[in-house]
Design goal:
Low-confidence stretches: none
Mean pLDDT: 87
Order of helices and strands: EEH
Number of helices: 1
Oligomer: single chain
Distance between the termini: 44 Å
Largest sheet: 2 strands, antiparallel
Strand order of the largest sheet: 1-2
Length: 48
Amino acid sequence: MEVRCYLCDEELDKNAKPFKIGMKEELICNECYLKTVNRRKTLDEGKK
């Protein structure tokens, strides 16, 4: 069984990162991880 990114359904290899989504952690690809982290950082800066 292939491991796939939770967000974009891309096949994962060694660059998978765990990311907390809801109550559990899912594996996501590096590209989705960077997009999500940057999106959260931008939202946090906007609230200041």
